[in-house]
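Feature request, filed as a ticket because there's no other form

It would be nice if the structure record came with a short human-readable summary line next to the tokens. Right now we just get the raw output. Example of a typical job, pasted below so the devs can see what we mean:
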Amino acid sequence: MTLRGVRRSAHVLGVASGSAALVLGLAGSALACNIKDFSAEAKCDGDKGVIVVTDTDASAKDATVSVFLKGVGGVETKVGEQPVTGSKEGARITFSEDWKPSATYRIHVKAGNIVDEDVQPDLVTPSTACKAESESPKPTASATPSPASSPSSSPSESAPAQPATPAPSASESSSAPAGTSQNAPSPAAGESNLAETGANSNTGLIAGVAALLVVAGGGAVWFGMRRRGASRNG
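Raw output as currently delivered:
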């Protein structure tokens, strides 16, 4: 086998191996857990506030999410900590937090030795707080008029003896029924999402393609050596 044949066979094998490494590298980068796979949102569950964190990590790595309330002067208060397993569709976890308008929260994610970062930017809550949708109406006052009376007349002392005819007294009273009102609060109840888990990976298919490329390179080397041997025998 000549030096030229060895170089050609090595070149073919190198191309095949390089292609396989490139495919595996791209696949690993696409499936690796990343801080960009996490997002946070402040929502309302009825008249209570909640913070929902979503993990769209397709590699389904286990992670731990911590939520901190950022106060004045850099003082932080830990709201809670929950585990989550990512999925391509998005796994969600919910933190019960009666947040105030325009408050700032820091969301920290730790996934083994891969991710140990904060979600950027920090979560800022809406300018309007969660509250009930209806209010109780005020009752109306009732009016009760006082009765009116008419004066009675008495007979004169200088008149002759005659039967006196006194004027009857009359009284009237009226009242209006008191108005009533009914309170009908109807608080609205929102929905809370539970955490979803799942996984999706094409690593098996990619590894199979890489193996085929390596076999093809080896076959090219063997074919070149056999052809060179046949040339010498001829």
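Something like this underneath would help us a lot:
Confidence is low (pLDDT under 50) at residues 20-30, 152-156, 170-182, 184-199.
DSSP finds two helices and ten strands in the chain.
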